[in-house]
Amino acid sequence: MPRDLPPIDDPGELARLLVQHSEDLVFTKDLQGRYRFANGALLALLGRDAGQVLGHTDASLWPAEVAALLVAADQRVYAGETVEEEEALPSAQGGVRHWTTRKQPLHDREGRVVGLLGQGRDITARQAAERQRDLDRLKLQMGVQAAGLVLAEIDYTTNQNHISAELARLLGLGDEATTVPRQAIFDRIHPADRDRYLAGIARAVDPAGDGHLAIQVRALLPGGGGVRWLDIRLQVTFARREGRLQPERGICAARDVTAEVLAQDALRAGEARFRAAVQAATDIVWTNDPSGRMSGPQPSWCAFTGQTEAQVQGHGWAAAVHPDDAQPTIEAWNAAVAGGVRFAFEHRVRRHDGQWRTFAIRALPVRDAQGEVREWVGVHTDITDIREAQRTIERQNAALREADARKDRFLATLSHELRNPLAPIRTAAELLERPEVTPAQRASAVQVVRRQVGQMALLLDDLLDVARITQGKLVLRRTRVDLPAVVESAVETVRPLLDRKGHALQLALPGDAPALDADPVRLAQVLANLLTNAAKYTDPGGRITLAAQAEGQLLAIEVADDGIGLAPEALPRLFGMFSQVGPGEGRTEGGLGVGLALVKALVELHGGRVAAHSDGLGQGSRFTVWLPLALAPARPEAAPPAPAPAGPRRVLVADDNRDAADTLALLLEMSGHQVCVAYDGLQALATAREMRPEVALLDIGMPGMDGHAVARAVRAEPWGAAVLLVAVTGWGQEEDRRRAREAGFDHHVTKPVEPGAVERVVGLARPR
Could you give the CA distance from residue 188 to residue 647 in angstroms, rounded to a whole number? Predict the structure, then answer.
């Protein structure tokens, strides 16, 4: 109620005001369909005043197709039925709003129907949020798959695990995402690992701990499928129930590390075999007199060192020992002789060819019947290769530990980076569901969802690009590129971050910048990543410059900032995958550590190189990219003619994801097209034969009959040659496009679909 209204004691008047000022639609109609009451929300939707609405019917207030649907529903109410349904109504403010409506009959005192009472609640924002959540879930799934992870969500209140399709296939539990009892997962754990697994789970679900588990266990696959090693990371959340904290949910990410474990086992086995081979090799055997001095023939020692029998007598053997080891060896040997105890030592000995070899020495005193030392017998065992193998193993173990630590940091950072946008999205969704939310609050919540989804999309796009480059599947689309256009695209991408942090960006491009032979999209991605990196690690109000100049047959592009700078030890690993430089006290701008690695990979794909420089912490940073120039002068290209606006078309939309199909159909209908929707391949083909579409937008992975089969069947029809077939799919690799062409598709559009792209493709159809 408006605050300036006086207090009202009349309950009837109070109810009237509440209805009049409600954000829900409230209205009544007589048996002729004429409005007898319409509250402010309905008048605002129509963009009319009460005088223009009351006494009028839907036919004069709504478009004909909308009015026809409303009248049909009203007739059911006049027949005594209460009708509840969802309605899409055009708004006077533009666009279409979605409502859940309830219409019920109004009766006179004799019980006769004299009209109807209608109510409607706006669910537009809720539907948009639900569609966005589905899209977010798809992007998250793609990012997780690119990282090689399989996922499970554990409900500790029901003891059920919801597992991803990848984990179900890995454990032999089916081919689709499914929900299984926790016992089904436990049954797959190798019996030898179950106690350790249960102990780890017990610690994770203990409210006194941090709820985290990191463990490697073996999984037994059914049907003789063998054993797989899984690296498992689990994070448990808790909720207060019955007065105490109890585990509620668990998010589990697992990775198949069988190959890594087998490689480590092979390394250890190789080390053991090598040690046995060394021990079986010929040793140097020698003897000393009771005083510990070498005397008599020493054939093994002389053969190895090249010394003569005369040279080795006494302590002459020490001349063949490494200068750094000779005196320590003599001192340790004299001490053992003085004590009459076993001697064990290591030192380096020069072989007759001049090579230094490392030996383990063992010597024992040989005593007579009276216990007196009669002589000393010693053995030199060559352990050079063993020590080198140990050093190699230590280096490999250090590398494995670093790789494992980087993997853990990456998974932790990925969890953090995905959780950050998910928190405000969840809050915004809950806010949108509340009936008391104001239009300003609703608009603010929608903007929050859009911003956070954009951040998640950029994050997952980088992960997917890294995966494509790693697998050698990323193909550059080279063309002659003008540098200013690419810079403009990159700056446009980074502008929101620059503005948010108040940075000043200065561009210094040559007036006659030479053309590049490059992929304009990927080159803009390189520059956007460098600018984003500079903006993140520069304090608010900083200065960033982007400059370029020709250097022979190369163009040098430099992005410099006056930010926090880099320590010298950080530079060598700066472009490594998942490498992160600590951002400093209080900074939260770090990412997954893939941005600069992606820059390096894309630049090298172009035949260029990239380097970083900093004078130290607090001295700013400078990143320089060198790219080859185009060999021939650029020729101006005529701008492509603007596509003619598409007239109404008969369009078939087929997708087993009903939300995806319905929203795409709604978009096309709003553009004036006649649209039919099918939710599987068989229904799509039947609908196509009935409506003879001019355009067919077909998902590929549909049940019953996939999109490729539908396309081939349509092309086999006499009328099918003229249909514009468009594959709408989440698979966008070159192999997927080739298969689509072979099936008869004219175009291939990758999900998530841009509305403008759909309109352009539909406009290519020839009207019939």
Answer: 58
Q: Can you tell me the distance from the alpha carbon of 496 to that of 503, in angstroms, rounded to the nearest whole number?
A: 10
Q: What is the pLDDT of residue 704?
A: 86
CA distances from 567 to 18, 226, 625 (A): 65, 48, 20
Distance (Å, rounded) from C-alpha 660 to C-alpha 706? 16
Give domain 11-122's CATH number out of 3.30.450.20, 3.30.420.40, 3.40.50.300, 1.20.140.10: 3.30.450.20
- What's phi and psi for 475, nearest 5 deg? -115, 130
E strands of 679-746, at which residues? Answer: 695-698, 724-729
12 band by pLDDT with thresholds 50, 70 and 90: low
Q: Quick one: 283-382 is in which CATH superfamily?
A: PAS domain (3.30.450.20)
Please tell me the distance from the alpha carbon of residue 186 to that of residue 618, in angstroms, as a whole number: 52
| Residue 545, both tokens | 């410059």
Q: Which long-range contacts (CB under 8 A, 24 or more apart) does 631-635 make?
A: 631/517, 633/515, 634/480, 634/482, 634/515, 635/480
Query: Residue 644: what pLDDT?
Result: 47
Average pLDDT over residues 346-370: 91
Q: Which tens digits make up the pLDDT trace of 74-108?
A: 999 999 999 999 988 998 888 889 999 999 999 99
pLDDT class for 465, splitting at 50, 70, 90?
A: low
Domain 283-382 in the same topology as domain 123-256+393-471: yes
- pTM of the full structure: 0.38
Distance CA 462, CA 251 (A): 23
